[in-house]
Amino acid sequence: MSEALSGHYQDQELIAQIAVRNEEAFKKLYDRYEKPVYVFIYRIVRDAAKAEEILQQMFGQLWNAADGFDGQEGEPAKRIFALARKLAVDVLRIRRTRASRHVADSGQESRQSLPLQLTDGALETAATSEREWIGERVNSALERLSREQRQIVEWIYFQGYTPQEIADRHSIPLKTVKSRGRIAVKQLRQHLSDLAGGVSAISSGQSDTMCERVELYALDGLEEHEKVAFAYHLTQCALCRNQLKELQRMVELLPAASDAVPLPAGIRSRLLSAVLGEAAAGRAGAASEALPSGGRRAGQATGRTSRYVSSRDLAAFAAEAQGKPAADAAELSRRAVRKERAGRQAVYWRLASAALLIAGAAAGWYGYQSKQLANQLQTELAASNNAQLKMGADLDKAAAELLSLHRPAEALKVSRTASLTPMLDTIASKGQATIGVDSKGMHLLVQVEDMPIIKQEEAFQVWLIKNNAPTNAGTFFSQNGRGASYFTFEPKEFDSLSITIEPDAKGEKPRGPVIMSASLKD
């Protein structure tokens, strides 16, 4: 069995023991992960005191909820580092939220903020050597990325920024941030394929927009709403599920590459005392209420009477302490019971009287509040009714307009026709533009033929121009050199009409060359 696999099973056994409150197992697990987890946390927060606080919080959660932790899927080491990263990144995000403004990074991340290899610590010798080797491999893979790609991995994984936050903070286009992140993750997976599993043959040929998010999802670089949407997408896309497993195995290697920092002096004793000290206090409290030899609960250990001792027991203990016979103890017991009952009845009456007074006051206040609330609700209801009436009128108007759009043209009158002529010597295209008017507005019909051959993703786009300002009048594709376009618009005069070749069919402004044109002036 390999060292890694052996350590995995040992961790599982230790967590199972911790789940049943085995302190020795907890100490062994702590000694195994103290150094690498602390170094990883420090790598994120850059603060020794805060790193120790987060380490204590993480091991405290593990101690108090090990039964649930033991039932999770995945290797214990990966889940431990995942929990450490979550807590550390949460601290960074809270720190940034409290700040009144963003502070730009210094930009000196090449050696200071980029991961370095992990050094020896409290890990076992074989596991330490393996982790050092993995750290060297991960650092080597990171060094092979471009400077910009390393920055994105640094900001997203080690500092907890989202792509939108990076774009806003560093004035980088959001698409560029996401593109660099995706490429970085893909390249890291290729460089670390022997550690994270083979690279799938179906890794980069996806065109679906949702599928393109798989790399950033694995790196924890999506906004919350994007995570929810992609999680649903995973239920529908087997390709992304398989690819995500490979990417996650690679991302889980990143904690192995962290700055070499010394452990704070005395951290082990402080942390174990903080986590296990509560357990020891709980055991001491339980021991203080142990049953005496006679089978009754007593309070001698704490110097006070336990709340589980009855009045009859008290009387017997008092008689025994004064050397009185058992018969006297029985009489004392009866008196104690009667006195206790009388005291309870008096307390009950006082509580009942106070409750009645409070109920009366509450009823009066409730009546006043109810009246105020009723007036407010009536006002809001009247406003809501007016809004509904207005909305109904708007809907009726919109429905009438929608029906009119679906009706055929009535009494359409042609107001202008113009011949389209080519603007380039290399084409022989020809066409005609017709503008008609009816009750719905103005309509433009463009018909062309002998159009030039364009690339598959390109499109022809029609523009109406007034004072050199173009208005988008639609796009079209040609078939056998012929094409047409139809556009309805508010009555307005234009100077000319042009057709351009655009790189796609979604442009709002002209980007390509003008190939045909026609004047619309008298």
Describe the protein's architecture and organization.
It is a single chain. The protein has 522 residues and is of the alpha+beta class. The chain folds into three domains: 3-256, no CATH class; 323-366; 413-519, Immunoglobulin-like, CATH 2.60.40. Helices cover 56% and strands 12% of the residues. An eight-stranded antiparallel beta sheet has the order 5-4-7-8-1-2-3-6, with no helix packed on it. Helix 2 runs antiparallel to helix 3 (48-64) and helix 2 packs across helix 5 (76-98). It starts with a helix and ends with a strand. The model is unreliable at 1-6, 100-126, 200-207 and 284-327 (pLDDT under 50).
Most strands sheet: 8 strands, antiparallel
**Class by alpha and beta content:** alpha+beta
Order of adjacent strands in the largest pleated sheet? 5-4-7-8-1-2-3-6
Give start-end ranges of low-pLDDT stretches. Answer: 1-6, 100-126, 200-207, 284-327
Number of strands: 8
Query: Helical region count?
Result: 16
**Rounded radius of gyration (Å):** 39 Å
Q: Tell me roughly what share of residues is in helical segments.
A: 55-70%
Number of domains: 3
* Global shape: flat
Spatial separation of the terminal alpha carbons: 90 Å
**Could you spell the SSE succession in H and E letters?**
HHHHHHHHHHHHHHHHEEEEEEEE
The average pLDDT is 74
Which percent range describes the beta-strand content? 5-15%
InterPro entries: Anti_sigma_zinc_sf (IPR041916), RNA_pol_sigma-70-like (IPR039425), RNA_pol_sigma-70_dom (IPR014284), RNA_pol_sigma70_r2 (IPR007627), RNA_pol_sigma70_r4 (IPR007630), RNA_pol_sigma_r2 (IPR013325), RNA_pol_sigma_r3/r4-like (IPR013324), RskA_C (IPR018764)
GO molecular function, one term: sigma factor activity
GO biological process, one term: DNA-templated transcription initiation
Protein name: Sigma-70 family RNA polymerase sigma factor
